[in-house]
Design a protein that fits this description.
By secondary structure, the chain is mostly helical. The chain has 21 helices and no strands. The longest helix is centred in the middle third of the chain and has 43 residues. The relative contact order is 0.11. Belongs to the monovalent cation:proton antiporter 1 (CPA1) transporter (TC 2.A.36) family.
């Protein structure tokens, strides 16, 4: 019962966080509001025991799977060199450079180099979800955001794999061998990606069979699809591969398989709304749990630094947090600048990297966009208790998460201010071209259908009805073929038609309610017709996207 009450309270807090940020007269990013609500709840002695392994299994696979589903494979492949440069090479540079720096500056007696490297490893992954909550949608150019999101998808795995090796070395279960670690790293990463693709391919084949057997029942498909990221994560981890990369590749594979694209409309609508709700709740859980842990992390660190006779104090740790954050941002900026200046090479860099076109301001935007979040918290809390300096390391990692979020809140809007972010002219032209082409193809099909119906005497359909309906539908489509020449009038006509149809839907829905109130129709008829109106309205308003 206590667990059930805890879950209900956390869900309520997640919902309240969304309401509060809308009501406030000033803008506060949703992740920071959720952290603050978690701290407030902790002040009332509400505490949730944090199990890092359970956290990783419960929250990270579905969130990364959802991000993978939204990733456009063509764009990802186009940016793969930039993503590898940030998600792999930068992580290695950060782990080594920051690890040695922490080992030299941290005045913690008995702190090993492996423990310092472990902290550097958990600080290397970035969080695109937290970034989206800070800057909002469309504030960073699409091409830049694709690289940042691709980096965040991949560096979770590289950071956690590095952490795993560092912990094994720290507790004496593994010897440091650069070649062995590098080989294991690539083996784990490639294996995770392969498991995600293979299991998802088999899973989607089985899911299609299940859909045929259940007549495309939306509930069954959505639940089975929701279980997929957990399945690939657990299978990959059990074999010894990266479960995180397996979840990412599973999301991408599902998108490429077309199982949702070819599903009936009601399944697509329900699936999108369900996943939107789940990702909102799970993301909220992550940051509220961070807020709940924060007071205990501070109190535990304070108690440990006083009891064990440590030479380090809380205020010194706070300065170290700021210093570590500055070192992280400095390393990130220098690496971005280095990739901007990389010369063109015959094989890998025969085409310049995207960073070549970045201005200095663009480099700073990409630098401060590297905020830290959920993976960093889960990773640092998974450091075993027997490792010396564990509490100090947890304090530093938590502090860096908060500092990165707060600094991004103030710095990114300044860097983005006055910058022309989106140029929609190319997209608008593509939309006009696509609408015209689609309309021409549809008109051709309808004319063939019309002639076929008129030629088939067995149908018994009145030719006047065929001409009337055909001219009405084809006439509506013909307006789209003239979008390039009569764009304004055509768009006005489309908008007017949409408004009229929405008014008609509203009247139909009111009439349906009247019939139900008067008990002239059954509940089943009411639900069936109401669902049809909802789907039609979603199609007109575009809310199914």
């Amino acid at each position: 019962m206590d667990l059930f009450s805890t879950i209900l309270i956390l869900i309520l807090l997640v919902s309240l966080s969304g309401i509060v940020v809308k009501l406030l007269p000033f803008q506060i990013p949703l992740p920071l509001m959720q952290i603050a609500l978690g701290c407030i709840l902790a002040a009332f002695h509400f505490y949730v025991e944090f199990d890092p392994e359970l956290f990783l299994v419960l929250f990270i696979p579905p969130l990364l799977f959802a991000d993978g589903r939204k990733t456009v494979l063509k764009d990802f492949i186009h940016n793969v060199r930039e993503i590898v440069g940030l998600a792999l090479v930068l992580v290695v540079i950060t782990v080594i450079a920051l690890g040695y720096l922490l080992y030299w500056i941290l005045p913690v007696p008995g702190l090993s180099l492996a423990a310092a490297l472990a902290l550097a490893a958990v600080l290397s992954p970035t969080d695109a979800v937290a970034l989206g909550g800070i800057v909002g949608q469309g504030r960073i150019e699409k091409s830049k955001m694709e690289i940042i999101e691709g980096e965040a998808l991949m560096n979770d795995a590289s950071g956690l794999v590095s952490l795993k090796f560092a912990i094994l070395i720290a507790i004496g279960q593994m010897e440091f061998n650069l070649f062995e670690i590098s080989a294991s790293f690539f083996f784990v990463a490639i294996g995770g990606l392969a498991i995600g693709v293979l299991v998802t391919w088999i899973y989607t084949k089985l899911l299609r069979k299940v859909n045929l057997l259940t007549n495309n029942d939306p509930a069954i498909q959505i639940v089975l699809l929701f279980l997929l990221p957990f399945a690939v994560y657990l299978i990959a981890e059990h074999i010894g591969f990266s479960g995180i990369l397996a979840a990412v590749s599973a999301g991408m594979t599902v998108k490429q398989s077309g199982i949702m694209r070819n599903a009936p409309l009601n399944i697509r609508l329900q699936s999108e709304s369900t996943w939107s709700m789940l990702t909102f709740v799970f993301n909220g859980f992550v940051f509220i749990l961070l807020g709940l842990q924060l007071p205990k992390i501070i109190s535990d660190t304070y108690a440990v630094t006083n009891l064990d006779g440590s030479t380090i104090e809380i205020w010194q740790l706070c300065f170290i947090v700021i210093f570590v954050y500055m070192a992280l941002m400095g390393t990130r900026f220098l690496w971005l600048y280095a990739m901007k200046r990389l010369p063109v090479l015959p094989v890998i860099l025969k085409k310049p990297l995207e960073f070549k076109n970045y201005s200095i301001r663009d480099l700073w935007i990409s630098t401060f966009a590297g905020v830290r979040g959920a993976i960093t918290l889960a990773g640092v809390l998974s450091i075993p208790v027997e490792i010396t300096g564990r509490y100090e390391l947890i304090f530093i990692a938590t502090g860096v998460i908060l500092v990165s979020l707060v600094v991004a809140v103030f710095v990114l809007p300044i860097l983005l201010g006055g910058k022309v972010l989106l140029n929609n002219s190319q997209v608008d032209n593509e939309v006009l071209y696509a609408k015209g082409f689609m309309a021409e193809e549809a008109i051709g099909s309808l004319e063939k259908m019309q002639n076929s119906i008129l030629a088939d005497v067995t149908d018994g359909i009145d030719s006047e009805i065929v001409h009337e309906v055909g001219s009405r539908v084809i006439g509506s489509l013909r307006r789209r073929t003239g979008l390039k020449d009569l764009e304004q009038k055509a768009l006005e006509a489309e908008n007017l038609e949409r408004r009229m149809r929405l008014v008609a839907i509203g009247s139909e829905r009111a009439a349906l309610y009247q019939l139900k109130i008067r008990n002239e129709i059954s509940e089943e008829t009411f639900e069936r017709l109401g669902t049809g109106l909802d789907i039609y309205e979603a199609m007109l308003t575009g809310e199914n996207k």
